[in-house]
Amino acid sequence: MQIFNVLDYGALGDGQTLDTTAIQQAIDAAALVSGEVFLPAKTYLVGALFIKRHVTLSFQKGAKLLGSTDIADFPEIFSRVAGVEMCWPAAILNLLEVDNVTIKGQGIIDGQGPHWWQLYWGADGHGGQRQWYDTHDLRWIADYAIKRPRSILVFKSEAIIIKDITLQRAGFWNLQLTYATDVEVKDIIIRENNGPSTDGIDVDSSNHVHIHHCQLACGDDCIALKSGRDGDGYRVGIATSDVEIDHCQIKSGYGVTIGSEVSGNIHDITIHDMTFENSGCGFRMKSAVDRGGVIENIRVSDLQMTNVQFPFSWLMTWHNQYNHKTMVDLADKPAFWQAVAAQIPEAQRFTKVQNITVQNVTAQLAADYPLPARAFDLKALPEKPMEQIRFSNVKLAAKEFGNIVAVNDLQFKDVTVSVQHDNTLANDAYDNR
């Protein structure tokens, strides 16, 4: 395979001079011969880069792509953001309608997240641009209107391998797979993500995906499976299916999550041999009355959790403030407001959860663990209760039991739960910011 060194195309790698054009020229040249683009161990300040089909991007150990803090360096492209099709800033690395691409090597992609996090919620975590939307009862549109670059976007692509790299300090999501098929993500590290919506890996209306042997520490969901939000997700109607997640370490954040955007359905998922330490959640499912969709045929096994607040948080009425849309006059608003505001047919409302199997799970707390801990939060709606839920060989230690609401055909076999006290009402509002 022919190697294309980015230094030969004028990249400086000094971390201060914008190297986008030079690196893109190397990518374009490699695409002509299905070659490999090589990043030597330097720091390259970049905006959006667009990987071409049959190209390998290889990082030397110590090589870093440092995302620009100028939004103008990330031209707007059509993709999907948090379950809604719209134009939004491109990512640092973009794989758009390509195939047979590999991204590899022990390098780093650094999104310079603190710049974007402060833009969103201010230096104190309570201001920034987000404050205006909260003040005007527009929480539901804030995440779409306050634009921040993702680190890697894979969109309408297939036969993709992403391995060995480290993603850190993302402006928004770290790695997004949307309308993708035949993707392997392995041995990557995601770390230092303490900002808003800094998901680790989002698998969105995609299939035949294998995520394994990764280590994730995030400010939001570490691995999230999604299939479209509300009316826009229902219109697209593409499910996420045939996903295997295994042998990963979850170090912080909200664990492995199905949701919250599930209007296109999620089915046939396998999650096994995972460890969770000091995370907010373990295996999580979340949706809302406007989502619709079906979550079914989920197999979860061999999880070890230590100091996890909510080992099983399955909430079909999650975060009402975020999901409730105040119906303002949309006539003079950008098109994406209308897309986010779109509702599903009333008859399709409420998410159905069925045929979920969980086995071989241990969750324990340190004696001095300071945070709340709730064994179960399984809450659906009477109109569409959860059904065929099986827990076997599960041992949980928690401070409180939690809730089980609107669940039919729930079976516990060899399940042991130890709790310290009654439920604390404040824990019903977990992750509602």
From TrEMBL:
It is an enzyme of class 3 (hydrolase). Residues 3-48 form the Rhamnogalacturonase A/B/Epimerase-like pectate lyase domain. The keyword Hydrolase applies. This is Glycoside hydrolase family 28 protein. One of its GO terms (molecular function) is hydrolase activity, acting on glycosyl bonds. It comes from the Bacteria. Its EC number is 3.2.1.-. InterPro entries: GH28_Enzymes, Glyco_hydro_28, PbH1, Pectin_lyas_fold, Pectin_lyase_fold/virulence, RHGA/B-epi-like_pectate_lyase.
